[in-house]
């Protein structure tokens, strides 16, 4: 996971994000029906992370405590049905 200092506490386990689309359309493309799925494996995938300000303590000492981590994550499993009609 990207972080400003690449600290090991920001790393995440391996994951696989699977997206898929199934389409059904008329031969002349007048209409199209699609079933769209994103992140079908439903993993919480962090895209960026950083330290929360003012949450750590005793910095620079042997007993220092890391700050809390704030991260942005991708959307969980999402499924949509889309219909397109050309007139």
Characterization of the model:
By secondary structure, this protein is mostly beta strands. The protein has one domain. The chain is built from no helices and 5 strands. The strands form 2 sheets. A 3-stranded antiparallel beta sheet has the order 1-2-5, with no helix packed on it.
Low-confidence stretches: none
The succession of helices and strands, N to C, reads EEEEE
Q: What is the number of helices?
A: 0
Distance between the termini: 45 Å
Largest beta sheet, briefly?
3 strands, antiparallel
SS class: mainly beta
Shape: rod-shaped
Strand content: 35-45%
How many structural units, i.e. domains? 1
Topology readout:
Elements: E1 20-25, E2 31-38, E3 46-51, E4 69-73, E5 78-85
Antiparallel strand pairs: 1-2, 2-5, 3-4
Summarize the structure.
The chain is mostly beta strands and 87 residues long. It has no helices and 5 strands. It has one domain.
Defining traits:
about 90 residues, three-stranded antiparallel beta sheet, 5 strands, mainly beta, about 40% strand, two-stranded antiparallel ribbon, rod-shaped, single chain
């Amino acid at each position: 996971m990207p972080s400003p200092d690449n600290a090991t506490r920001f790393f995440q386990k391996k994951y696989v994000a699977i997206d898929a689309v199934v389409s059904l359309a008329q031969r002349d493309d007048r209409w199209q029906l699609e079933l769209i799925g994103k992140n079908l494996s439903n993993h919480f995938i962090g895209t960026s992370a950083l330290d929360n300000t003012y949450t750590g303590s005793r910095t620079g000492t042997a007993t220092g405590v890391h700050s809390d981590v704030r991260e942005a994550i991708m959307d969980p499993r999402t499924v949509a049905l889309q219909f397109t009609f050309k007139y």
